[in-house]
Design brief:
Elements lengths: L18 H22 L3 H16 L13 E4 L13 E4 H39 L1 H5 L3 E6 L2 E7 L13 H14 L6 E6 L13 H18 L7 E5 L12 H7 L1 E6 L32 H14 L5
Parallel strand pairs: 5-6
Antiparallel strand pairs: 1-2, 3-4, 4-7, 5-7
Helix pairs in contact: 2-3, 3-5, 5-6
Length: about 325
């Protein structure tokens, strides 16, 4: 009898066998990029807190300065000044660090907002000055420019002073008065600089360009103060011929260098050209009073013998 052949068992094709390692690979890549993102932005407070926690877990004890059972924190030691008592270590926990970080962030935001407000206020001042001096600006006799946080109003001396003089011309009085009326309601400090060309001067009133530039700046300041601006906001600088804007080799360059510069400074900021106030130096400790020491006995004896020798013996 013929044997029946066994039919081979047909196995089902494994079409989805690749999905399992592929899913594992995608999961690992996701975890890898999550770790990269977390490491890219390190919070200093969290880093210190994590380091203290790891120290506690691996060493079985609290970090130095931590109380038993307290949360991990950061040990802050203040360095004493010379002559000051040694400060005790202060433990600042992670909550305090986060609060300090938030405070710093708020301070930075306030500083940015204040800087923007000051910049906007200076822009308005520049616009007001430009509007008040529009006719002279078109004639190239006045230049208004912004340099950082300072607005500079440059006025040529052609309309301010006669040659070799520090007396304001009638035209200059109207120009300075108009500018002063624009600056009067503002809190900005004002610095006036006098500049000359390189031509020397030697008169009884002005022995050099130093005196001439300073006198011209002072004349402008007097007129500004008399126009209603608080004199405490004003300052004067004479720069002679040592801050030229163009070369003094040509007549046009010398004419451009003869000028008065009115610098409008940010409100609340000290004059950068002024010398800051220095604290009074500490007075030296008083010298100890000299202690009177008795003279040796031999000195008194010698003095007596010398006096006796100086008196002639009776004859």
């Amino acid at each position: 009898m013929a044997r029946k052949r066994k039919r081979p068992i047909e196995e089902e094709p494994k079409h989805a066998a690749w999905a399992i390692p592929y899913g594992d690979l995608v999961t690992l890549l996701l975890a890898f990029f999550v770790v990269l993102y977390a490491v890219s932005s390190v919070n200093e407070g969290k880093y210190h807190s994590l380091s203290k926690t790891l120290f506690t877990e691996f060493n079985g004890q609290q970090p130095p300065g931590s109380a038993p059972g307290s949360a991990p924190g950061v040990l802050v030691v203040a360095r004493p000044y010379p002559g000051q008592a040694t400060a005790k270590p202060v433990l600042t926990d992670s909550h305090q660090i986060f609060a300090d970080t938030a405070t710093v962030t708020r301070k930075e935001a306030d500083e940015i907002a204040r800087a923007r407000a000051e910049a906007a206020a200076l822009d308005k001042v520049a616009d007001d000055v430009s509007a008040a001096m529009s006719d002279l600006i078109k004639s190239n006799l006045v230049v208004v420019r912004r340099k950082g946080m300072i607005i500079e109003v440059e006025i040529r001396t052609d309309i301010l002073f006669p040659s070799g003089s520090a007396t304001l011309s009638p035209t200059a009085v109207g120009v300075i008065t108009k500018l002063s009326q624009t600056l009067a309601p503002l809190p900005n400090p004002v610095r006036v600089e006098g500049h000359t060309d390189s031509d020397p001067i030697a008169t009884a009133a002005f022995p050099s360009n130093w005196e001439l530039s300073s006198a011209r700046a002072a004349s402008v300041v007097h007129l500004i103060a008399n126009s209603g601006i608080d004199p405490s906001r004003l300052s004067v600088i004479g720069r002679a011929q040592y801050s030229p804007t163009q070369s003094n080799a040509t007549a046009a360059g010398r004419n451009a260098n003869r000028r008065v510069l009115i610098a409008i400074l940010p409100p609340g900021n000290p004059d950068p050209g002024a010398t800051p106030d220095q604290p009074d130096p500490p007075s030296p400790p008083a010298a100890p009073a000299p202690v009177a020491t008795p003279a040796p006995a031999i000195t008194a004896v010698l003095t007596t013998q010398t006096a006796a020798a100086a008196i002639p013996a009776p004859r």
